[in-house]
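seq as requested:
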Amino acid sequence: MMAMDAIARRRGTAAITVLAGLAVLAGTALLVGSWRDELPDPVASHWGADGRPNGFSSLDGLLGYLLGLGALLVLGFGAVTLWLGHTALTRRIGAAATVWSALFLSIVTAGSLAVQRGLADAHDAGGIGGVMAWAAVTSVVVAIIVSVVVPGDPRQPTGTPIDAGAPRAPLGQPAAWRGHAESRAALLIGLGVCGLMVALALWTRLWPLLIVAVVVFALVASMSVAVVRVDDRAITIGSPLGWPRTRIPLDEVVRADVIEVRPLRDFGGWGWRVGRGGRVGIVLRGGESLLVERTGGRSIVVTVDGAQTAAGLVNTLADRDRTGS
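struct tokens:
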């Protein structure tokens, strides 16, 4: 019954977000299509660093690009949600990415064409820095809201003892542990990108790019650092900013262990990833990592220092929770 409930959540989340994303794309195409007689031919489709148009396209070509790329992203992220969304964290990230991609492309397309309405020549179009800032902020805010409202996992507690061969830790008081993992390379790249965007904003005087820089850095920071907490109730793994975040109750732990992770081989890269079988990975480096296997065939890996200590404490606390001793 629980397995069927989990499958239903995956299907429902994927279906709703994919349909919503496709509806946003289709609605944008219809709206922009209604402006056909007010737009120049060809329309501006690309802007240079100086804030002036430097690329042009037919309206149909631009709409074809919007619908083609948008539909590809929406269906791709929807497939991730459907096939790999074994945990609420994966479903939430997949749903957020689905909605984000449709909304960002739609706002950029509609906004860049709105500034051209009434023009005879697309060369006369102004800059779209404000449009880009609006698209970046709005799409991220809506994506976060979507991730929050996606239903969590159904509770799947177990009373089965932890495997006797699993690591254990001496139990002292208070029984708690805290560790963190970070990707300095990702943070440096994020800082570099933000620095370039700030320099571009100062050079072009497109001040809304400063907002985009802040949003980009916030996203990079949230995905490049993870804090792991273990106490007598749960394991909590999340960004210092509070999102993404996942919580694993001790009564859903099957076993905690230490494994060696190779980011490219095991998860296809670095960051918050999904591996084979829907395994969630917070992969910020290679090497020793904490593996927590859960009921319902779910599991999560985090590349945190002190993984051996964390795994032993999780198993010991889970045993105490079930035996009362």
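The radius of gyration is 23 Å.
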